[in-house]
Amino acid sequence: MDLPTIWFCIIALFWLGYLFLEGFDFGVGMLLPKLGRNDTERRVLVNTIGPVWDGNEVWLIVAGGATFAAFPGWYASLFSSAYLPLLAVLVGLIGRGVAFEYRGKVDSVRWRRNWDRVIFLGSLIPAFGVGLLLSWNVLGLPLDANGDRVGSAFAAFRLDTVLGALAVVGYALVHGGIFLSLKTAGELRTRARLLTMRLAPIALLPLVALLLMVQLREGSAWTWVPIGTVAVAGVFALARLAAGREGQAFSLVGVAVAGTVVALFGALYPNVLPSTIDPAFSLSIADTASSGYTLTVMTWVAAFGTPAVLVYQGWTYWVFRKRIGTHHIPAVHTP
Amino acid sequence: MDVLELARWQFGITTVYHFLMVPLTIGLSVLVAGMQTAWVRTGKVQYLKMTKFWGKLLLVNFAMGVVTGIVQEFQFGMAWSEYSRFVGDVFGAPLAMEGLVAFFVESTFLGLWIFGWDRLSKKVHLACAWAFSLATIASAYFILAANSWMQHPVGAEFVDGRPRLTSIWAVLGNSTVLAAFPHAIAGAFGVAAAFLVGIAAWHLWRKHRDGNGDPEDGTADERSTAEAEDRRVWRGSVRVGGWVGLVSFAVLAISGDFQGKLMFDQQPMKMASAEALCSTESPAGFSVFAYGDVARPDCENVKSFTVPTLLSFLANGDFASEVKGVEQLIDEYGAKYGTHYPDDPRLGELAGQPVDYVPNLPVTYWGFRLMIGFGALATAAAAWVLWLTRRDRIPRTKWFPRLALAGIATPFLANSFGWIFTEMGRQPFVVVPNPNPSGVDGVWMYTAQGVSGLTAGEVLASLITLTLVYGVLAGIEVFLMVRYARAGVAGVMPPEEPTDDESGESGDTLAFAY
After folding, report:
1. Strand ranges (DSSP E) for B170-316?
2. Fewest CB atoms less than 10 Å from the CB: which of A8, A97, B68, B147?
3. Residue A334: inside a domain, yes or no?
4. Which ipTM was obtained for this model?
5. Which of residues 160-219 of B touch A (CB under 8 A)?
6. In a domain, A130, yes or no
7. With an 8 Å Cβ cutoff, are A328 and B508 in contact?
8. Rounded to whole angstroms, how far apart are CA atoms B467 and B66?
């Protein structure tokens, strides 16, 4: 494999890390109003991701930064074309990050309720936006010869991309539900599991539809393998969840996300950004890759940096491995 | 306004805003890690109280710095896609490194630190504090290396119309970043120092006024012990802040002098504009204050109070040498880089028009002076506070807390004006050509060429949205800061809370939860 192709895979890996890790953060945020019946319960839910959400979000920043360094043309065309959807993602992420940190800082029902709304919307909107962005990237966007978007600022909103957006939202709901079943204790755990079981058949439909559509439109024979993996892992994940083995269900979701990312990026290869106007305008790995020297430098950084990240983030999950229940939540203390 | 102007305003607003949070985060996180080290080493409760109090204010600020940073990284691609395509091969690398090497460490270990009080041993928990605080400094290095490359492109060659990276070490070891890094980091410590001094001085003065801060007249009961401890917290914070402030301002002056000399060499137009030096002079004087119309490069109407020969010294280290003025530089830049913009339809109205090589003179002239002026005020404040609180003294005058609190603003303002000066001063370029031989031939870009092919409506929408969101969040952050700062130690440590974490009394409850 040449360096540009390796970097195409590394960027897919960063997206995998992001979708898997922030996927459940988004799910927790979206399930907050439904699952958390009182403030203590909502605090339990928020605190399951409290120590880790920030580190999870960095995967998105690194996916963006690595695309900038390794494929400047891809980064420039995608980010400028999807200007308004990305703005929505940014505003959502800004609100959500601040909300986690600030919601407990004042002891007032209204204060907390407002931040809870921000957490909900700040999880829903970025999940939707990221799904829109990814599916738009894979399915193609109206790019001209310079790599600029032709057409309106809302060109990203199409039936097929909205399906992709719903796919990520639905996946995040299920993933978040499984994560909460794994990380909470007592009654919340049961409720999270039952809700997830009930949600899953509907919530996962858009993902199934998206994968089939991508496969039929862009896929090749081998991409049936990851899609098959997603289906099998998904079914088993729900079965393990039903059996009360949340850890196994959570790991199986990881397999399904990996399959999804492989299927999407596999359908994209060897393009990075297909143009719907003229295939000649499509940006390919070769067109947009940085020079061999830059990629070599970045490969060294990624080769040492990424395993280190996996080790210390993994350690964080180990440190905070305990389930949290309402009895763990300390009394509110604010000035 | 067209896309270019809107995108510039947006970048300016979001960056200046982001850089209100960043220096406080950098400076305060290192100081908090230091306080925690003192606690772990000595076991004295006053240091734990300092860690908890300043740590809480740090967290209120940290969140805002993190979320506004994402906008910075995405904005290059969103609003400056031509710029991103042009520089990506070189500029993307330090940005991606920042994410992979620094930002991951920062956010992961911050989470461990916030929630790890009862989950980690004291030493490991302390190590987490050092990990995230040092990572913020590493983060600053990578970002400054990227920015310095825009000011002084090195380590690249010009191939097929774009710069191509030839040496990452040259980019990371750019003379410009070597000077900018100590300057920016010292600026960050200056902010944190003034923050410590301002808030702690107010508490110290209030305790003294209320009369229960003096250890001599306290009885031996627990309450007065706690009061005496609190007094040590505030006194310690004031003294630490004062000294950190003085040292950082010394570093700022020295590194600033280095930066100035580099800038005369690398970006003569920026420095000439900083001085509103219209025509070449030898020796050149340093303008302290000007009135009249500095906006006009012919400078007919400007009267200026000048220190003779000082500018020659700042530029070249002697009192006789020539310093080039704006008028001569216009001709030199025109001869080297062309007098007109290329006839490219992407440039819109500017296509084929003459290039204005002079930055916005009032902004560069006053930005430079306000940076230095507010920096000097902050230095004076630090020295004054150290003098007033010498040998266990506590001033009774109500001007003490008032001025100390007002002093918090000075290093923030100095930082903002410094950045506004240096970024406005490189206009009309986004990547500045360096006329002297240290720059790479052919590597430069006009700001007007860097902007994305968007509609003005899109950029206007984001400009309005981000400004509004940032404005609301600024209000909330200040509200929380004031609330927690006023409440003092009791606001972050309930009095009944056992100060030693070995106590099993709290049972299963988490030491900290959102």
Report:
1. 286-291, 303-307
2. B147
3. no
4. 0.92
5. 164-166, 168
6. yes
7. yes
8. 17
